[in-house]
Each structure stands twice: as structure tokens, then as C-alpha cells.
Design goal:
Blueprint (H helix, E strand, L loop, with lengths): L1 H32 L2 H60 L1
Bound molecules: protoporphyrin IX containing FE.
């Protein structure tokens, strides 16, 4: 499940980055142009840009945490394996 989520969230983040990267300079140009007829367009474009940035921030935060989540899961698995090994060893010594 985690592997599936990693793959698709990374893909989603990458694809959403493209329109966002195009939209940001467009918004900057419109803002600084001072052209009043373009300001109506700015309101329209701004409506898309904010949610796109929010989604990028959320998926980006997940991508950022990914190595730490993987490390945490690896450590958990290691501890479990060690515990099983110790229990098996204890079981052997008791039967002797
Ligand atoms: C605003 C909050 C954002 C955060 C916290 C964030 C965080 C991240 C993180 C942690 C990664 C993975 C880096 C790695 O593992 O090497 C990543 C990859 C990436 N980010 Fe963002 N990001 C954000 C916004 C953006 C924006 C605004 C863009 C572009 C418009 C963008 C474009 C990309 C691209 C193209 C990748 C590479 C994806 C891949 O490896 O397939 N990100 N980001």
C-alpha cells in the first residue's frame, strides 16, 4: 500500500508541478502589468493557483517525510525479527 501511494503521489506531484510552474510566471506578469482588463483574468487564474499550490504542498510534505517513514518501518521490522530470533534461541535452550 505504501509503495503504491509513494509511486502515485510522486507522479501526481510531478504532473501538477507542470501547470503550476506555467501559471506562476503568468500571474506575476499579469500582476505587474497594471492592465485593468487583465485583472479580471487574474481573479480567474488565482482561483486555480491556490488549490494547486495547496495540493503540491501536501503531497510535497508527504514526499519529504517518505524517507523517515521508510526508516521507521525498517527499524520496526528489524526489532520484530530480532525478538523472534531471541525467542527461538530461548526456546531451543529450554528444550535442551
Ligand atoms: C510547496 C510545497 C512543496 C513541497 C513541501 C515540496 C516537496 C517536495 C519533495 C520533498 C520532493 C521529493 C524530493 C526527492 O525525494 O528527491 C519533491 C519533488 C518534486 N517537486 Fe515539490 N514540493 C513543493 C512544491 C512544488 C512546486 C510548487 C513544484 C513546481 C511547480 C514542485 C515540483 C517538484 C518536482 C518536479 C519534483 C520531482 C518529482 C519526482 O521525483 O518525480 N514542487 N517536492
Amino acid at each position: 500500500m505504501t509503495k503504491f501511494l509513494n509511486k502515485w503521489l510522486r507522479k501526481f506531484h510531478r504532473w501538477l508541478a507542470v501547470p503550476t510552474a506555467i501559471l506562476i510566471p503568468i500571474i506575476i506578469v499579469i500582476k505587474f502589468s497594471g492592465n485593468p482588463s487583465w485583472q479580471v483574468l487574474l481573479k480567474q487564474v488565482d482561483k486555480f493557483q491556490s488549490p494547486m499550490m495547496l495540493i503540491l504542498a501536501i503531497t510535497g510534505a508527504y514526499l519529504y517525510l517518505l524517507p523517515y517513514i521508510a526508516k521507521w518501518q525498517r527499524n520496526g521490522r528489524k526489532k520484530k525479527a530480532l525478538r523472534t530470533k531471541q525467542e527461538l534461541a530461548r526456546g531451543h535452550s529450554e528444550t535442551r
